[in-house]
Amino acid sequence: MLPYFSDKYGNASSLHAFGQIAAKAVNQARENIAKLLNCGIEEVIFTSGATEADNLAVFGLVNALRKNNNDKLHIITSAIEHPAVLEPLKILAGQGVEVTYLPVGKSGLVDLEIFKKSIKDNTVLVSIMYVNSEIGIIEPIREIGEVIEKINAERAGQGGKKRIYFHTDAVQALNFLDCDTKKLHLDLLSFSGHKIYGPKGIGVLFVKSGTPIQGLQLGGHHEKNLRSGTLNVPGIVGLAEALRTCSRDREKNNKKILKLRNNFVAAVKKRIKNVRVNTDLKKSTPSLASISFVGAEGESILIALDLSGVAVSTGSACASASLKASPVLLAIGIKEETCHSTIRFSFGKNNTEAEVKKVLKILPPIIERLRKMAP
Predict the structure, then answer these.
(1) For residue 74, what are the CA distances in angstroms to 112, 142, 151, 163?
(2) What letter does residue 5 receive in the DSSP assignment?
(3) What is the pTM of this model?
(4) How far apart are CA 98 and CA 122, in angstroms?
C-alpha cells in the first residue's frame, strides 16, 4: 500500500500518466479479487466497506426493480442478520416492501424447509449472511443458492413470476470459507478489508452480470455508475493483497485458530461454573466463542478484561456500545437476562497459546468477584 500514499498518488480516474499508474494498480487488484471470488473483473465493485456494500445490494436492487414497475416486492432474510442489512430492510418495509424474517434454530441455523415455504411469486431478493458475526454459525448458503437457482429455472418459462436474486454478507466468512460465487450460486456478495487483516475503509460488492442495481451515491461515473467517488487506491491494493494471503493461508490458520478456540472453551467450562456456550463449536467458524456467564454483567466483564489488556466484545463489534439485549441471542432462545451476561471472544491467526492461558488465569476471579457484587 505504501507507494500509493505518496509516490504513486495519482487519481485512478485521471487520464494523465500519474493517474494511469494508479489505475493500473486498481485494475490488477480487481483482477486478483475476481480470480479469488471466481467471477468477472467487471463484477467487482469497490465500496467503503461491507456496510455500504450491504446497503447498495439491498437498496440498489430494489430501487432498480421498482424503477419501471410498481408491483409489490417481497424479500426474505433471517432474524439474525447484521444491522447493515436489517436497517435498510426496515426502511423498505415502511415503503411497502414485504419482508419475511426467517426464524433460526438454537444454534442459529436457517431451516431450509421453512425457507422454501416462505418463497412467494413476488419474492425478488433473499439476503442471508454466510457466517453470523456474534455466534459464528455457518449458514447453508450453497444449499439456499441451489434452491433459488432451481426456482428461477422453473420461473423462466412462466409469466408473471419474478426472478429471485441472492445476496450474502460474507464479512465473517472470507477468512475461513471458500467464497466461490459460482459454487454458492450468488448474485450479490459483500465483504470488507479489515476482517481479513486488510485496511479499514475499503470493501467490495460482487454484482453478478445482469443483476439489476442502481447506485446510491451520485456525482461521478465511478465503478460502472454504481459507486461515485474517487477510488481509495491504497485501500484497494491492500484489500487485494489481504484476500490473497488469507486465501493462501486459510487451511493452516483455520487449524491453529480452531485449536485455540476449542481449548479455551473447554477450559472455561471446566474452571467456571454456570456458563452457557452459545456458539455451536461443530457448525461454526473457528474464530468466535459466545459465552454467557450467568450472574455476572457482560459490560463489567469486558471492562475488567480490558484493564488487564484483553480485548473482547459483548456482541457484534458494530453494536457493542448498545445496552439492548442482542437480537441474535434472543433469536436463538436465550433469556434477556442471560444475554446481558454474554461475552464474545474472538480468535485470530496472531493469537497465541500464552495469550489464551493469560485469559484463563484472570477470567475466573473476575467472574467470581462480579457474581458476588450482582444484586
Answers:
(1) 18, 21, 15, 11
(2) G
(3) 0.94
(4) 9
Within 8 A by CB and 6+ apart from 24, the residues are none
DSSP state of 135: T
The domains located in the chain, with CATH, are 2-248 (3.40.640.10), 250-373 (3.90.1150.10)
- Please give the backbone phi and psi of residue 131, each rounded to the nearest 5 degrees, phi first: -135, 130
User: What is the rounded distance in angstroms from the CA atom of residue 47 to the CA atom of residue 228?
Assistant: 9
Local structure of residue 341 (DSSP, 8 states): T
Helix axes 83-94, 50-66, angle to 10 degrees: 30
Active-site residue among 39, 179, 246, 318? 318
Q: Dig out the grid coordinates for 20 from the structure.
A: 494511469
For residues 115 and 104, the answer to whether their CB atoms sit within 8 Å is no
Express each pLDDT in 104-154 by its tens digit.
999 999 999 999 999 999 999 999 999 999 999 999 999 999 999 999 999
318 as an active site residue: the answer is: yes
- Residues 6+ away with beta carbon under 8 Å from 203: 46, 47, 48, 49, 50, 51, 52, 53, 190, 191, 192, 193, 239
